[in-house]
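To assess whether the prediction recovers the assembly geometry, we first specified each molecular entity separately, as shown.
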Amino acid sequence: QTVVTQEPSFSVSPGGTVTLTCGLSYGSVSTSHYPSWYQQTPGQAPRTLIYSTNSRSSGVPDRFSGSILGNKAALTITGAQADDESDYYCVLYMGRGISVFGGGTKVTVL
Amino acid sequence: QVTLKESGPALVKPTQTLTLTCTFSGFSLTTSGMRVSWIRQPPGKALEWLGRIDWDDVKFYSTSLKTRLTISKDTSKNQVVLTVTNMDPVDTATYYCALMGNNRLSFDNWGQGTLVTVSS
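The predicted structure of the complete assembly is given in tokenized form:
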């Protein structure tokens, strides 16, 4: 069973930079997994931030960026703001039509 | 403007079959490259991809749930239907449908979600 790994939590200061990662229980993440990232606040549906590794969804501020760092996908928030405090989920495409969510990272801005 | 909205029962009993409908607008599921996925989220837990149906009626399901899931579409009504058999309390979750558009493998637009509770 494929497991997509994310840090459970991260804390960042206002104006600071934080990088969240998305890995695999075995193997490396590549652009062929078409990593995507989603932001979710309590009680709300997820919002798409990044698709296909590093493409920003419409209306997403450029302080959010996606990349591959080493053997993981990464989401970097540069210049964190208070309303960036949310849960962040990555999704990897595993082939054969299967997508898998990571366990999510709770980001606190303080 | 793309919109999706889930509908169905808020409460089902254990062992019953759940049927949810995703009604959408702003796109056609007959257009090449369009796909609709179902995703769920138990209270306080992570999102989980359940399955998807493509414009050409090809379907894919989560490995762990595929024996219990069926996804179908009615293009004349702009609807996608999810059925989950043999519901259990652990299936209590908010269920979302989402558009995977333009041949992307990401969830571009989301419904608001519908909470389904499994309890006797």
